[in-house]
Amino acid sequence: MMSGSQLWAVDVYGRGFSLWAAGGRWRRVADLLLELKRVTGSQHCCWGIGCDHQVYLHVYPSQVPIRHQEKTYENQRWNPVDGYTDTLLPTDRWQWTDESGLNPQPLHSFVLPSANWEWEGDWYVDDESCGRESSETGGWEYAVDFPATFTKEKKWNSCVRRRRWLRYRRYKALGSWAKVPLDRARPPPEPFTDISCGGWDMSDSPEKHIYLWAVSQQGKLWFRTGIRQQNPEGTCWEPIQVPQEVAQVSAGPKDLLWVVLWDGQLLARTGINKDCPKGSSWELVQPPNQKGAVHVAVGLTVVWAVTKDNKVWFRRGVNSHNPTGSGWISIGGEMLMLSMGPNDQVWGVGSDDRTVYFRHGVTATEVTGRSWVAVSAQLDGSASTNHSSVHVQSDASVFAGEVTTPSQGSVLGCDDTDIPKPRVPKITSDSFISALVSDRSAPAHDPPSVAHPSVPEDNQMKSQESDSSVLSPSSLSDGSETPWSNVDLEEMKGSVPSSTRSSVATYPIELQHNTVVQEELPPWAWVTGGGCDISSSSHVDLFNISDPGPLSPSITPALSALDTDTRTRGAQRERDASVEKSVRVTRGCMCWWRDWTPHQWEDVSVTLEQVTGAGAQTGDVLYLYYTHDQEKKYVYAVIKEVTALVPVFRDSLYTMAVYTPERTKQRCPILLATPSQQDFNTWLSLLNESCCASRGLGEHPSKQAMWAVTCKGDVMVHEPSPSLEAPAQYLPCEHMFWRQVPAHLLCVESNSLGVVWGIAHDHTAWVYTGGSRGPSAQGNENLNQAISDVRSVYIYENQRWNPMTGYTDKGLPTDRYMWSDASGLRECTKDNTRPPSPQWTWVSDWAVDFGVPGGTDKEGWQYAADFPVYVDFKPINRTVTRHFCLKLISVLCSFRTFHGYKTIKDFVRRRRWARKCKISLTGPWQKVPPIALTDVTVLPCLAQCSLEQVPVWAISEKGDVLCRLGVTTNNPSGNSWLHVGTDQPFKSICIGGGHQVWAIARDGAVFYRGSVSAHNPAGECWYHIPSPPKQTLRQVSVGRTSVYAVDENSNLWYRQGLTPSYPQGSAWELISSNVCKVSVGPLDQVWIIADKVPGYPSESSGTVCHRLGVKPMQPKGLSWDFGIGGRWEHLSVRGNSIEAQRVAPRSPMPSRTQSQVNGNAVGC
């Protein structure tokens, strides 16, 4: 608690009390006749409503007095006879006016606003002499006429003059409660029933303005104007229009204002700002439950409420951009009312015991705190039987959380005849005082004992007579040294009569002194913490909390202020046990790519609100707050609806794309960026954890997970559900949640047994060991290993020939950029080209790349008649098929292909420059040396199947076909490679159900490997399969009974006629175009990476799509479901074997003899 902070409270009898951090005791207000009903405080003053329904003000004492300056102007006009006189023209202003001259202000019109003010001296001329005798000028200013610009210099044409008179009045009621006067010349408002102040943090100016709101008996809302530091009482009350009658109002330190209506509903005020402190409109907020709200408390960015059943609720998502919030969360405890502190600290009055409570654990992050702790400071001014004061040490422990130093509390025994006495501990033969003194000095950390007060002996005898069980009269019969007694403290642990409320503690007291009677704490009715500033860094000793977990609100100081009512104690324990949910808030600043035109980066405040605790409906929400056209707005995303967090690199900023189902359909993700990589990694990790927690996902992907890779090399996984492939109700692709796995790879393949292989951009093979898979995953310290990847970044240097200078970088206006990417549509120079993401670093310089398809000359140049044309299909007539468009483009560009030699018709040339970059990170991956790979495939199977060895096939960088031996679920990396002979290099390979191995050579030829089995993992020979007519295939994928392939023109083909006896099939059937890659799973499900999304031509290439309608009798499916998109390059669904119950597939064709097989055996 800050040294200058103060807590105010009112008991049920209307008595006001204050609690300072320095004193540690409740002090009653000096005016004993003042009775208050409500109080509201700030760090400078406190307002209250008396039982007479009048408003009272208590301004805290300060070394700087509150002085208000009154000023008026004396005006004169010159005439030839008398010179400057008070005789003015009829059209002139009055003799005494304000500065504008429009309002008369004679000296006698200034009166004190109330009896709380007094004058400081008399009126004097303001001539910069600060009240001293006027100088030669007399303080006059001269001008030609009214109104005009006045100057201190008198000229020949100065016909009028004026001077300013000043007088100061001082507020003299500092440190005391003073009645706020009624508005002059206005009828008094209705009697007030509630009051709340706030708004002092609304402006950044040094002078803090306080805005006061009040509620009258008729349910009207009033606003106090003119409250300033030099005018704490304000000027007048103004009514605020409210659609219904108001019962209670609460204003926050900034621009939040809520009211409770008579029917239990709530209203939030919108449009409040420093220029319009009264706001503009109301928004209705439904109460937390059907019983309705009875109280609301507003802080900086939080709102708490109490319903009619005394339950406590917290409002989520409250912000100046969204003053109504988003939803209610139940918080443990039963309270009558709540009050907010300057740092969103929470105070309250218990509904059962009428005790003041403090919400422990409230920080800027943990906005709801953890538990309620009783404020257990005792009343100041302990009275003895002879009404003499006893000097005791100040109570430094204000909040009780455990039994602490027993010297800090009330003296044992209370002679208050109004309440029954507690059962006093039994006294043994030793001295009672000895036990108290020894107990006081026992703890090493206790403060030193205070001096024994001197009390007459006869008064002490009177105190003994009041309770003979405490001290025996025989022990005081002689004047010798008093005997000592022991107090059995064990009995204090038992129950105490229910009517007792006194605290028990010890003080060193001599027996000849009188006993001190401590007045009990009254039942509280109201508390305000607006002026009590407790920061999260406050010393924990002030709270006496040893256990940071939930605390019982019945804990009190010293030996304990035992709650003697069994029913009350049970209610308090129930209040503490009900602490179930909490809200954690993380705030930061990021850049947001604006959705509307002109699209640009916008600075936003980001808030992640997480709900934790037992029974919490995980409803984490991400808020983006921004200001547009001086209007506060916000965008939010429910974390449970977030489908992917994809890292991207844009405009030299660390950027992430946040996808939701709706934004996936719109092809417009939320783009958030940070200039710092550390902030980016922190937010990405935090959002990933929140997304996984909201879906109950573990740290590592399951064996059934679907794997994907983006163009940046980021590895993403999705945990499938049975509804994903359900034949009746499909899970839409836009609802699939993808999360990132630490790695940077080119492709990933998996199966349902948990075997996952990946290939990096430098063609290094990696095996996933996460989830305690593999022999190296015996401990968490062995799971994460160093992962590195190297890739090349390419740019093109373009030149055009002219007769004068030959090939130069001076192109035609219609040409591409002279330094560009492969398409020529984007300018890429050596200086502005960056690595794929900030995680990559350059490891080489730019160099000419001679390994370009089509060949180069000795300098790396490629030649063509003209630069290739890139056609946008958007304006093409819809009746023209895409297949026809591709043929048209191929004809147009046939003479524009680049080759490695120069001809007489070649007017343009280009050469490719390459630069290598490297990334290093850690993850649960194991490197598989030493052969570099370009493609890998793992046998897809059902989850319940068991294999001694899992078949893994691959293609080396040289085009050799390899078979991995020794691969098991416990050893996913295998033992060794087995070379499978071929007569030409291959580029794609895939193994499917029944050990079907299909492959594609680099020239586009298709092959099927025969006789592959578990006992013969390498098979016997290759069978050549005819390709689709006039098409060159580039990738193949095999499922349980289906084979799909993609050609160089992005067409998807399906192999017809596959049977167990005829595994090569009969013919190819065109299924779709616009396909980059295909993946067929163990259930014959078909997923692709699409090139473009229909209707979104600006969408980047690479969209995840699902083939709908795939059934055993309809393996080709019916249509496509487009999901998340934008630069996704690889997808593997070969581990997803989760399926709904369905009939086993039946072979669609009869068996054929060997002579019917369409394929010829090829020598190995």
UniProtKB/TrEMBL annotation:
Q: Where is the composition biased (Low complexity)?
A: 466-481
Q: Know the name of this protein? A: Tectonin beta-propeller repeat containing 1
Q: What is the lineage of its organism?
A: Eukaryota, Metazoa, Chordata, Craniata, Vertebrata
Name the GO cellular-component terms.
Answer: bounding membrane of organelle; cytoplasm
Q: Does the keyword Transmembrane helix apply?
A: no
PANTHER family reported for this sequence: DYSFERLIN-RELATED, TECTONIN BETA-PROPELLER REPEAT-CONTAINING 1B
Q: Where is the composition biased (Polar residues)?
A: 1150-1164
Top-level taxon of origin = Eukaryota
What's the family?
Belongs to the TECPR1 family.
Under InterPro entries, the record lists: Beta-propeller_rpt_TECPR, Peroxin/Ferlin, TECPR1-like_DysF, Tectonin_beta-prop
- Residues annotated as domain Peroxin/Ferlin: 65-126, 139-172, 788-849, 894-920
Q: Which UniProt keywords apply?
A: Repeat
Region annotation (Disordered) ranges: 405-425, 439-502, 1141-1164
